[in-house]
From TrEMBL:
Reaction(s) the record says it catalyses: Hydrolysis of terminal non-reducing N-acetyl-D-hexosamine residues in N-acetyl-beta-D-hexosaminides
SMART domains: CHB_HEX
Organism, scientific name: Massilia aurea
GO MF entries: beta-N-acetylhexosaminidase activity; polysaccharide binding
Keywords: Glycosidase, Hydrolase
Enzyme class at the top of the EC tree: hydrolase
GO biological process: carbohydrate metabolic process; glycosaminoglycan metabolic process
Superkingdom to which the source organism belongs: Bacteria
Name of the protein described by the UniProt record: beta-N-acetylhexosaminidase
This enzyme's EC code(s): 3.2.1.52
Amino acid sequence: MTDRSDGGPAIHIAWECLSNFIRDDAFAARLVLRNDGDAPIAPGWTLCFNTCRKILAETVSAGYAIAHVNGDLFALSMPGGDAWMPGQTHTLDYEALHWAISITDAPLGFYLLPGQGGAAVDLGDPVIAPFARPEQRQRNRGDAVPTADAAWRFAQNAALSTLPEDEVGRITPRPRAAHFTGGQYRLGRDAAVVHGAGLDNEVRFLRALLADLPPGEGVVTLAIGPVTEAGDEAYSLDIDAQHVALTGASAHGVFNGLQSLAQLVSPNGVLPLGAVQDAPRYAYRGMMLDVARHFSSVDTVLRLLDCMAAYKLNRFHFHLTDDEGWRLEIDALPELTTIGAQRGVAYPGRSCLPPSFGSGAAVDASSGSGFYTADEFVTILRHAKARHIDVIPEFNLPGHARAAVEAMRVRHARLVAAGDLAGADEYLLSDPADTSAYESVQLWHDNVMCIALPSVDRFIDTVVTAVAALYREAEVPLTVLHTGGDEVPGGAWVGSPVCQASMRAHGWTDVRELRDDFQGRCRAILARHGIAFAGWEETALTPRADGVLAPDRRQAGRDFHVYVWNNGGLPHERDCATELAAAGFDVVLANATSLYFDFAHAKHPLEPGYYWAGFVGTRDAFDLAPSAGITGLQGQLWGENVCSRARLEYLAMPRLLGLAERAWSPQDTNPDWNEFANRLGRRELPRLDRHGWHYRLPPPGARVENGMLQANTAFPGLGLHYTVDGADPDTTSPRYVDPVSVHGVAIVKLASIDTHGRVSRIVTLHLESP
């Protein structure tokens, strides 16, 4: 046993789901804690951690207590306990709501608060016991969704086949029309670029593309002019034996054509002769990134924008604020980032938000903390502009607003202490006398703005003014601002004297009227800045007399942009997107069941991601049949589990390609998944490899019948390797091509491996006892 190198105690933490079958909507779990240090831990210690499953305090083993702090933060203690001696183990069981079937359901981000004072000590994540038994792998006894094991994957992939080369599309997303004759044209890095006016940005992109080719010549002409297909983003690309000619209906159309050219040209500069005529199905083709729950660096955001542009996505919904973080510097309100952008354990002289999603005690040591300076945000805007991507910022309110509420509470306290009472109230977002009792979906008790305060309007206007100034500096128009508006918990405002006084003054009897008034004020603030209002679907719905939510036609208009996340795919749901579009709203379909890329790809204990609306694979996005009348589609990457760039890329890709295909390509009543899967495995994944993307490599499907190993992959063409000696597969291991005899073999291991040698999750088949 030994203490850690930093002098803190060494504590081994293990967690196990015991059973999801104990009773309705609850599961049993066990924590095992062992002092692996050389010294005792003084009595009075508290062990804090985050968990997405609400623990039922009354079920905790005798002698221990687990209290809900706020949000997903819980605190374990041992009231009246003695010192925790070296080698001593504490084992405690508890129950929590819902179920636990994967690593995402386990608690994480443990840290110790010493009983005698002193700094918090980060302990990291627990060792998670395997989910092996049915009561650990099923959400309840009626859970009919099978675990995505090797046999399940083999069955899912069984209908796929490797297509002839000429039957696999060359461009993703699939263009409206493309024909290739079989000849070749070669481009080199010294190719001549002939272009018309207004295409300087596109010429820079083309020259960067040419710079990666071998030495050589050629001719590429770029022009804005008439094309076959309709719309500003349309283009025509012609490749003959003398040159490449690209014409776009606008600069954006030319840029889209360049993305297709980039996919057609091989690393050695060879292009197929032929022609492409193309235009998008939807004007809005978007991707949302949540950087509030976990912060993503500027470089990570720019990299995502590059990938979006490569697949012709043109809207970047930037979720900048939520309960757990405010990520944009606002000069007039520094507390938004000095407090609202920092997560950890506060100490004298340092205030911050509490740890969430496993971010830990140290303020500066995880992706729980961070923000974009004004200059960095301008850099992001300019980078997006050069790629013809509109950035739609989101500042979530009135709910999902705890980071802002807490930051302004700290500001208020600071100015009150300085004797500036008027200044303290200027941007206050909460009513100090509010006794409202509520709990948000994410378990917060104080995350809603007090929308009857005039200071809330002043706060919003100040933020919008600052953001608009950054857009002007970047020379980018700010036309739409997303205000969130979702998941305001019931019970908010009912205990606020300020809100109740406002309701009496206006003759309102329902807090919904208070909220409708607030939303109208938000729209008016944005309108004064020439900005359209956007929000999640809750902002456009209102209860009918029978209590059922329906489109609020009083607010309908093309300047009201609605993002529908809860649309079909779940029992008893209506086609909300179609109803809102028919009512006159501008609707973007962003439904959870197909386009939530933070969800687990499949039901497997080791697959990261939430799954409250199901499991979402690349095919779910590809197979989406969009509602009638919508403006477009958007993928969502919520940030609760995006703790690193590698995790972001794993969750986003290759699902983003399924989104791009469905948002761009012509409507298809019978989309060809086999062709698309071949296109990914043989063209797009190797291309992503060249750019170093850590996309999800699907584990192989496999089974053994009559002593023969049969294996397959979700994307034909992807490398599949195996071993029969117990070693983990790598690029030197045999590549699976045809069934293999495994008579007498005890263990088979398989993995998908990309062109750079990166290995998927390893699949292990135990065939017989050794």
